Amino acid sequence: MRSVQMELMTSREFLTVGFTTAIVPLGAVASHGDHMPMGTDGFSAHALAVRIAERLERTMVLPANFLGMSGHYHHQPICISLSADTQTRVIRDVVESLHHWGIERVLLLNAHDGIIPSTEIAARDAKIAHPEMSIATIDWWVITNRRLPADTWEVWGGWGHGGEVETSLGLVLFPDLMQMEHAQGQVPKVDPYAKELWLFEELTAHGASGAP
Ligand SMILES: [Zn+2]
Predict the structure, then answer these.
(1) How far apart are CA 171 and CA 85, in angstroms?
(2) CB-based neighbours (< 5 A) of ligand 1, an ion
(3) What is the mean pLDDT of residues 111-125?
(4) What is the whole-number distance in angstroms between the Cα of residue 32 and the centre of ligand 1?
(5) How far is the CA of 100 from the centre of ligand 1 (A)?
(6) How confident is the model at residue 205 (pLDDT cuts 50, 70, 90)?
(7) Domain 6-202 adopts which CATH fold?
(8) Lesser CB count within 10 Å: N end or C end of the chain?
(9) What pLDDT, on a 0 to 100 scale, did the predictor assign at position 131?
């Protein structure tokens, strides 16, 4: 097999491998401060998905979905957002297409906070419609923070949009697109227990939060 990336395959290659599993990289286009590209989430999700698929059998990676629900990031230039309804439909339609082609194991690999609710709704609906499918969701930053030692990060547990964890991932996955001389963030005050629905401009004056 030449590549695990669907958009690089021919139909013949697809049929020859007999894929059973697909990873769907979910991202967004929104400011990540002045040190990371606006497509950070799509790039991150896709690069992680490819690395995972290359270690598995008969697993392919869909093209990165760069359009996500990002309305709460619209104060910094620029942000192209889907509504939560549209986002849910997009994910649901993708899973339906995979089911049509006999791919019953699907991992929705999410890189953007605005997509979390839509991912869960779409995945639940798909599972109810197709009980034989195995569908899972991952928010990559949750895994990094659980799997790495607690003292890996210096500030705010590494959290943030374009913060310490995400900036580190960018430096590993797409160093040529990083401009660390422009890195600026701010650690916001957020309630540790209640989930307050913020607009990003309420958390930081920059396009990034945390400590890039
Ligand atoms: Zn991001």
Answers:
(1) 33
(2) 40-41
(3) 97
(4) 6
(5) 31
(6) confident
(7) Rossmann fold (3.40.50)
(8) N
(9) 98
* pLDDT of the residue at 180: 97
Centroid of ligand 1 to alpha carbon of 129 (angstroms):
31
State the distance from the centre of ligand 1 to the C-alpha of 128, rounded, in angstroms: 30
Q: What is the pLDDT of residues 11-62, one digit of tens each?
A: 999 999 999 999 999 999 999 999 999 999 999 999 999 999 999 999 999 9
Using the mean position of ligand 1's atoms as its centre, give its distance from the Cα of residue 203 in Å. 15
Return the sign of the alpha-carbon dihedral for residues 119, 125, 128, 134: negative
Indicate the pTM of the whole model. Answer: 0.95
Ligand 1 center to residue 162 CA distance, Å? 6
- The alpha carbon of 160 and the centre of ligand 1 are apart by a number of angstroms equal to 9
Buried-exposed string 156-177: b where 16+ CB fall within 10 A, e elsewhere: bebbbbbbbbbbebbeebbeee
Look-up of token digits 């490819």: 50
Residue 165 alpha carbon to ligand 1 centre in Å: 10
Q: How far is the CA of 211 from the centre of ligand 1 (A)?
A: 14
* Averaged pLDDT score across all residues of the chain: 95
Q: Kindly give the distance from the C-alpha atom of residue 61 to the centroid of ligand 1, in angstroms, as a whole number.
A: 20
List Cβ neighbours of 126 (8 Å cut-off, separation of 6 or more): 92, 95, 96, 99, 106, 133, 135
pLDDT in tens, 140-169: 999 988 899 989 999 988 989 999 999 999
